[in-house]
Design brief:
This protein has six helices and five strands, in the order βαβαβαβαβαα. The protein is an alpha/beta fold. It has a five-stranded parallel β-sheet, sandwiched between helices. α2 runs antiparallel to α6. The radius of gyration is 16 Å and the shape is globular. It binds coenzyme A (COA).
Length: 164
């Protein structure tokens, strides 16, 4: 059984993230999307909300599971019994941070391997922060995110604006 963990904060999931999950689901027996707490980021959606939205976005793939976790990635790979961590590389600028993270994780657990895949270049400029900023400023973000994310974002932004 080849099982991979794709971790991220996914606040929210974009088409770039979904593209990577779809590619991985063809290569691995099981893909676990690990929705993580990133203490360096402020979030728009709670951990539970993000996990629920991703479940909706990935429901067409039978070998994809979604798990929310708070803690170290190296502990999550032991808990979920995965063979490797999957990360996306969109541009050279991603590399340095990814290398640092992969080596730190391997230093914490020498069996922790990280595999990199490239998402489609079509979405290489998209990030969760860019989507949130576009949405908050009234721009059209719908073609960069899955439908479930688009609906959740519209609802959240409306709620924020009504409270202003
Ligand atoms: N398509 C589109 N965008 C992508 C992408 C893809 N394929 N892959 C990454 N991105 C974007 C993300 O949306 C994110 O954008 P944002 O900064 O605007 O939100 C950005 O690239 C960076 O993403 P990422 O590096 O994946 O950060 P993250 O917060 O999503 O995930 C964790 C980082 C969760 C993996 C990391 O914090 C972690 O491992 N946490 C657990 C604690 C731990 O073990 N820490 C020690 C790690 S060494």
């Amino acid at each position: 059984m080849r099982r991979v963990l794709y971790p991220g904060s996914f606040d929210p999931m974009t088409n770039g993230h979904l593209d990577l999950v779809e590619r991985a689901s063809k290569l691995f027996d099981e893909v676990i999307v690990g929705v993580a707490v990133n203490r360096t980021k402020d979030v728009l959606f709670s951990l539970e909300e993000r996990a629920e939205i991703i479940k909706e976005c990935t429901s067409h793939m039978m070998n994809v599971q979604v798990k929310a976790f708070d803690g170290l990635l190296v502990d999550a790979i032991v808990n979920y019994k995965v063979n490797a961590i999957l990360r996306g590389l969109r541009a050279f600028s991603d590399f340095e941070y990814e290398l640092q993270m992969a080596l730190m994780n391997r230093s914490l657990n020498e069996e922790c391997e990280t595999i990199f895949m490239m998402p489609t270049p079509l979405n290489s400029f998209v990030s969760s922060s860019i989507i949130k900023e576009t949405a908050l400023l009234g721009g059209d973000y719908s073609k960069y995110v899955p439908e479930a994310v688009s609906a959740a974002l519209a609802k959240r932004i409306k709620g924020i604006k009504n409270n202003d």
